[in-house]
Amino acid sequence: MSISRPTVRAAADAPFLVAARGGLPSRRPVWIMRQAGRYLPEYRAVRQTRTFLQMCYDADAATEVTLQPIRRYGLDAAILFTDLLVPVPPMGIELAFDPAPVLKRTVRTRADVDALRVPDPERDFAPMLATAAQVRAALSPDVALIGFVGAPFTVACYLVEGKGSKNWDLARRLLHGEPATFDALLAKITDALLPLVQALADAGCDAVQVFDSWAGVLAAGDYVKRCAPWTERLLAAARQRGAIAIDYVNGATQHVAAMADSCAEVLAVDWRSDLGFFRRQVPATKALQGNLDPTALFASEADLRSQVRACCDAAGPAGHVFNLGHGVLPETDPDQVRIAVDEARRAWP
Ligand code: CP3
What we know:
Strand order of the largest sheet: 1-4-5-6-7-8-9
Helix content: 40-55%
Order of helices and strands: HHHHEEEHHHEHHHEHEHEHEHEH
Shape: globular
Number of domains: 1
Number of strands: 9
Bound molecules: coproporphyrinogen III
CATH topology: TIM Barrel
């Protein structure tokens, strides 16, 4: 199947796109990391009859759940419903979600790395690309579509360990203990993801976010030298295809200098750092996205509003996309998300 470039795109004056380019939009753009998910009853209704992976491979189901939070909250960006581990099976490793990911094999030796396949996006990611085209066609021009991939280090964490981990000791041991194997693994993951980034941009994504969810376990020097250069290639590929590049680093405080050097137009900041600190540390041309603590959605309405306001005030009106600092938790009350969205829009000069 060949994916042709759709004519539909977000308008140049869409609030997300204006803010992502550092400008002053008509209103503060808002979206929520993991906005399509189990905290929404309409998501659970679709999910009830299918596994999570079946949803990822079913373009109609994935389109529906991608659009659900847009309908409910009138958000400024939709994020494609998939997972950063969807590229793992076409690389040759079986994957299940229960609900957390479990891989059938791990990748720890040079032979394991060499055995990994590089997927062909149009063959192996056809449902994801079809979802992108369908969602883009369904969105109004003032709403942006964000596609995403995992950063090579974060994907490597799962390949090395086979499941979630607190500090990813095995992945970090490989980085130091078998440096050539670790570097070859990140190179292979980058080879696998780079054509996907390009295909997502071509299929209608206005932006591509690279999720480095576990970079927070890395020392600053290891991140700069061994991991960030691979992320950089994915961000650059998005930009080359005309998509906005968003660099999300969870545990970003020790990596702020590396993020300042990245080519991403938008830096997505976790909840631990103050956005004012980021404003002072990164070039003024970069937009910031974030960064409410997802657990602040469990506060009283008054406290939630004041925390959202503090985050918006620290960022300023121009070049800011309001979001959480990490994904919304499944136990979150959807009405609390509505309050946060409302307050972020009110926090406007
Ligand atoms: O933001 C969105 O609405 C798009 C959806 C999205 C999912 N995964 C769907 C999902 C996004 C952006 C991701 C990225 C992702 N996946 C990350 C990076 C973001 C982050 O939170 O740091 C990571 C680390 C993963 C890997 C992953 N997938 C884990 C650890 C888990 C289990 C934990 C959990 O949240 O359930 C998943 C499963 C997953 N990915 C679900 C969803 C909606 C839950 C599956 C279900 O319905 O049972």
